[in-house]
Amino acid sequence: MRRLLGYLIALVGGLAVLAGIALSILFGPDNEFVSGPHEIQSRGQAIVTAPQAIRYADPDVRIEVRAADPRQRLFIGVANDVDVENYARGDAVTRVGAVHLPWKIATTETTGSRKIAVPPGRLDWWIVSQEGRGASSVTLPLPDAPVDVVVMNADATSRVRVAVSVVVIGSGAFIGGLAISLAGLGIAIAGWVYATNQIVEDTDLSSGPVATAVPRDDRDTP
Amino acid sequence: MRRLGVLCGLIALVCCGCSLPHHKDVGVIDKLAATRADATTVLIHYNRVRTQADTDRDVATLRAVETGALLQIDAGLYHVSRVLDPGGSGARSAWTQPTEYVVPRLRRYPLWFVLVVENPDQKTQVAVLFNRASSTSSWKATYAPQLAATTRLPALADQQGGAVSIDPEQANGLPYTPVDLLARYCRALSDPNSNDARDFPDDAFIAQMRQVRSRTDRGNVRVTQTWTPMRGSNALRTADGGALVFGSVQRKDTFHIVGGKPIRWKKSNPAAAFDPNRIRSAATVTYVHQLLFYVPPRSLGNPRVIGQVGGVVNASSR
Question: Do A86 and B15 touch (CB under 8 A)?
Answer without folding.
Answer: no
